[in-house]
């Protein structure tokens, strides 16, 4: 082939092919490492802890065997918690990466700009005032997240993510106030539930919650991946994107799907602090600065599952909600990112 | 004539920045828009590139209002390089240039050999093939500007609109870039429309010059006809002598400035 074709253009194309391959190979490597880490964290969360479940026992229990103590612990505590951690982490990680990359600002993640807390406040309202639960609660969280997202967008205007972050942080503070207020109005039983909507936690999860979340994710994530592929141009800024034939409305559609993902995650596990916020930057740092949804999803899941494991066992005898650990880990990270951005 | 404006008014608030402008962009030639700061030249270009919706009138591309055509269809005909675009962090040169292929791909279509070839050609034309695997953030200003032009070239459009492509470039890189764009006209027959700050470079590289003043067109035509001492005074408020560029034969604007006016003797002024 190289004999008949003129050599010069063939060589240029080869240079292009080779240059295109390098970052993709690196990304595949990063994804493989992250997947292995997630697997490790998942196995630790399911099998280790105060009560260790052996691998043969694990498979026996999955196969339906009744092992006194172990079966209950695995099937109603450890396994659902680990699975929910993965699902919520994936949802938050993707939502964060979509927000940060389309708004081109690492601070503009849904947990910083009030979307998570909007979902939270709405869910608390649904519990305390409307007495809702299950799927209805998810719907309430979604409506709350959408309302806050739309409100922030309207107040901030479409230009500049800087204003959006400012307005969003204010909205987040207001939503925290709403949750606190409702908290004082709740009866004792609801108050325990409401606590989860302030920090986020994976304990006490039930299988139906997992199925509902999984059902939504199976539809939403492929849709989002498909839209974000054609909306890659948006990362080049609105002018270049328009020049490439990608309308600004794509941004809104993409953000809308990310808001839904956030709301679903919050409906299942509460506003677990900083997971959406850190997933994007960490995966970017590993991947040579490039944002990918797969990378962010994996980092989000690792942070959730590992964070929950630490929260449960780091201090003997005390079990924290996962949000306490991610908050403690995320806050210094936020400060570091801010100081770095000033340079 | 594929691109034209029909009494188009453009602006960001209530007051139009561009006021009922009509013009035609000649095919296969280089058109340069010049004017003082705030005369509406960039706004006009943004309007023609459908980045701004007209307040009234319309921009016509191939016989139809550009705003009424699907934006992806327009992107196959009309390429755009806005003023100082910013590349996403960590993106490599090939991947950035590859984004220019976006309008040619369906939503489910994968990257093809045709895309590879288009990117390779764009890199060769802009002399950036050697940078293919580099990260855009790490390039110099001149290299980066070339890479953005390469992205617009990979889009393979018949028309190319550029908003001050030479800003932030030193004089050698300015000439390099303008030579490159001029070469496109020769090799591909691309219609180039650009806004330039530098009147002398505009006069040298334009086939067709549009001078704007106060949101309206002050003059259009060949640089030799448009660039006159009277017009430079009118459009830029600058007193100047126009001489022949000894290299290109195009008009060369030599500003007079306050201190060189024959009437103003420095000693007399001091009193």
TrEMBL record, chain A:
<feature type="transmembrane region" description="Helical">
    <location>
        <begin position="27"/>
        <end position="46"/>
    </location>
</feature>
<dbReference type="InterPro" id="IPR037294">
    <property type="entry name" value="ABC_BtuC-like"/>
</dbReference>
<feature type="transmembrane region" description="Helical">
    <location>
        <begin position="204"/>
        <end position="227"/>
    </location>
</feature>
<feature type="transmembrane region" description="Helical">
    <location>
        <begin position="137"/>
        <end position="156"/>
    </location>
</feature>
<protein>
    <submittedName>
        <fullName>Iron complex transport system permease protein</fullName>
    </submittedName>
</protein>
<keyword id="KW-0813">Transport</keyword>
<dbReference type="GO" id="GO:0033214">
    <property type="term" value="P:siderophore-iron import into cell"/>
</dbReference>
<keyword id="KW-1133">Transmembrane helix</keyword>
<comment type="similarity">
    <text>Belongs to the binding-protein-dependent transport system permease family. FecCD subfamily.</text>
</comment>
<feature type="transmembrane region" description="Helical">
    <location>
        <begin position="162"/>
        <end position="183"/>
    </location>
</feature>
<dbReference type="Pfam" id="PF01032">
    <property type="entry name" value="FecCD"/>
</dbReference>
<keyword id="KW-1003">Cell membrane</keyword>
<feature type="transmembrane region" description="Helical">
    <location>
        <begin position="253"/>
        <end position="279"/>
    </location>
</feature>
<keyword id="KW-0472">Membrane</keyword>
<dbReference type="GO" id="GO:0005886">
    <property type="term" value="C:plasma membrane"/>
</dbReference>
<feature type="transmembrane region" description="Helical">
    <location>
        <begin position="82"/>
        <end position="100"/>
    </location>
</feature>
<keyword id="KW-0812">Transmembrane</keyword>
<dbReference type="InterPro" id="IPR000522">
    <property type="entry name" value="ABC_transptr_permease_BtuC"/>
</dbReference>
<dbReference type="GO" id="GO:0022857">
    <property type="term" value="F:transmembrane transporter activity"/>
</dbReference>
<feature type="transmembrane region" description="Helical">
    <location>
        <begin position="112"/>
        <end position="130"/>
    </location>
</feature>
<feature type="transmembrane region" description="Helical">
    <location>
        <begin position="317"/>
        <end position="338"/>
    </location>
</feature>
UniProtKB/TrEMBL annotation, chain B:
<dbReference type="InterPro" id="IPR003439">
    <property type="entry name" value="ABC_transporter-like_ATP-bd"/>
</dbReference>
<keyword id="KW-0472">Membrane</keyword>
<dbReference type="GO" id="GO:0005524">
    <property type="term" value="F:ATP binding"/>
</dbReference>
<dbReference type="InterPro" id="IPR051535">
    <property type="entry name" value="Siderophore_ABC-ATPase"/>
</dbReference>
<dbReference type="GO" id="GO:0005886">
    <property type="term" value="C:plasma membrane"/>
</dbReference>
<dbReference type="GO" id="GO:0006826">
    <property type="term" value="P:iron ion transport"/>
</dbReference>
<keyword id="KW-0547">Nucleotide-binding</keyword>
<dbReference type="InterPro" id="IPR027417">
    <property type="entry name" value="P-loop_NTPase"/>
</dbReference>
<keyword id="KW-0067">ATP-binding</keyword>
<dbReference type="InterPro" id="IPR003593">
    <property type="entry name" value="AAA+_ATPase"/>
</dbReference>
<dbReference type="Pfam" id="PF00005">
    <property type="entry name" value="ABC_tran"/>
</dbReference>
<feature type="domain" description="ABC transporter">
    <location>
        <begin position="3"/>
        <end position="239"/>
    </location>
</feature>
<keyword id="KW-0408">Iron</keyword>
<keyword id="KW-0813">Transport</keyword>
<keyword id="KW-0410">Iron transport</keyword>
<keyword id="KW-1003">Cell membrane</keyword>
<dbReference type="GO" id="GO:0016887">
    <property type="term" value="F:ATP hydrolysis activity"/>
</dbReference>
<dbReference type="InterPro" id="IPR017871">
    <property type="entry name" value="ABC_transporter-like_CS"/>
</dbReference>
<protein>
    <submittedName>
        <fullName>Iron complex transport system ATP-binding protein</fullName>
    </submittedName>
</protein>
<keyword id="KW-0406">Ion transport</keyword>
